[in-house]
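Because discrete structure vocabularies remain unfamiliar, we first show an illustrative case, written as a sequence plus integers encoding its fold.
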Amino acid sequence: MALEIDGLAVLCAIAEAPEAFPAIRSDVTKAAHALVTKQLKAKTLDLPGLRAVREALGPQPLALIVDGLKDAEVKALATRLDKHHPDLKDAPAVTHRRHLMALAGTLAPVSAPAVKPKAKAPARPRAGAKPAANTAAKSAAGPAAEPAAASPDGPTAASAGAPADALASAAMAARPPRRPRQQD
């Protein structure tokens, strides 16, 4: 039965005594590049993870590894970490690399744009609605639901800009309840 070795401990030992391993110097470089590249491509890598990689390696080695990535890989990583940046989708590869390194430093990602609430269109009566239903709704609502007579000054505030047949329904005259505002 084979025992597993602690790979990180072995790599630390190789790093602490490189003179003991002169034949594998180029292999260590390739392995280090491959391991950091794999970490950068990981789907679970987030902004704190990227900053931890930069802190562990330093800015210069990370920049060299990012420079060795394909343009598409750098673009995917930069847009995943800063989803709402307006210029990243159409920017050249050098911009993606610079932005990724800035994010690894202290640059904060662009926050999501504020969502504007969409105004709902007023409900319209159905084409197949029966006039008897409108009469029943008016009588149930009482005289307040009756459309106001036209005054000599023009249409009333309740009927301004609305067709006269839409106001015949008590349901159309009622306003929907106000929704509480969302706080940022």
